[in-house]
Recover the amino acids of this structure.
């Protein structure tokens, strides 16, 4: 994978994990499968689980253990109040950034069109 | 879902390999990550077997779909100071070899006064290496430092 894609992806992973958990309580395996569905993120267990551990340590995510028929207790993740606040801030920032980049791209494509005429 | 002993041993071996690569991570985060991984493996096994008992071949298939243990290695902010314990042991043991070789090249007479330092460094590397036996660098450090210690002692005798 190209370096710039890796760098961009790294910054977005925590944002994506928080947003995925904000939809409702979820467990690790389910979360990984869901994020794997976003092909561009190229998510694997070794990227998601360390982020989850760190988010828990930082107080953004809380864990609830529930018995599982498949083996050890299933670990359910949900956002804490701090996590919801952080996710909200990140979403606001992302929306602003997205709009600004979209406007920038629109301006530059407009200039290219004018130049080609 | 039941997991037989062989399959359980394979899971444990994978988790031990992952744990060996988490040295830079805080202890609580390490424990969390390993519990999550164990839970992930069992969920993946249940999805594969449909809740039936899992065999070693199932575990093998699930683990081969997962990232290798090395991919959990925590990236170093400062590569020199964040070396793992095993790597530090290996560096110290090699430094002893290089220093001894340099002094021998200058003349064996110069080595005598430095013997306690070599032995101290090599014994420290040996202890550090044996504490990091799970790492390949830890094993290498023990071998190198033990060999240098024996050679130094023999050359002094």
């Amino acid at each position: 994978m190209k370096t710039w894609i890796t760098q961009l992806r790294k910054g977005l992973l925590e944002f994506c994990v928080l947003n995925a958990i904000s939809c409702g309580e979820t467990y690790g395996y389910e979360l990984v499968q869901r994020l794997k569905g976003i092909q561009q993120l190229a998510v694997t267990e070794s990227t998601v689980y360390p982020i989850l551990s760190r988010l828990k340590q930082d107080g953004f995510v809380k864990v609830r253990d529930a018995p599982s028929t498949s083996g050890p207790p299933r670990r359910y993740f949900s956002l804490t109040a701090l996590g919801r606040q952080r996710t909200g801030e990140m979403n606001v920032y992302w929306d602003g950034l997205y709009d600004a980049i979209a406007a920038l791209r629109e301006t530059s494509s407009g200039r290219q069109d004018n130049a080609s005429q | 879902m039941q997991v037989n002993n062989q399959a359980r041993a394979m899971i444990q071996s994978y988790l031990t390999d992952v744990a060996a690569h988490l040295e830079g991570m805080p202890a609580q985060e390490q424990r969390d990550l390993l519990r999550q991984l164990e839970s992930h493996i069992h969920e993946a096994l249940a999805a594969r077997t449909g809740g039936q008992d899992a065999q070693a071949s199932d575990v093998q298939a699930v683990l081969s779909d997962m990232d290798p243990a090395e991919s959990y290695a925590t990236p170093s902010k400062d590569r020199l100071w964040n070396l793992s314990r095993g790597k530090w042991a290996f560096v110290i043991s090699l430094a002893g070899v290089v220093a001894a070789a340099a002094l021998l090249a200058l003349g064996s007479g110069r080595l005598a006064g430095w013997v306690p330092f070599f032995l101290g460094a090599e014994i420290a590397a040996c202890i550090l290496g044996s504490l990091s036996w799970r790492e390949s660098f830890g094993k290498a450090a023990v071998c190198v430092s033990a060999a240098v210690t024996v050679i130094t002692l023999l050359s002094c005798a």
The radius of gyration of chain B is 22 Å. Chain B touches chain A through 28 residues (CB under 8 Å).
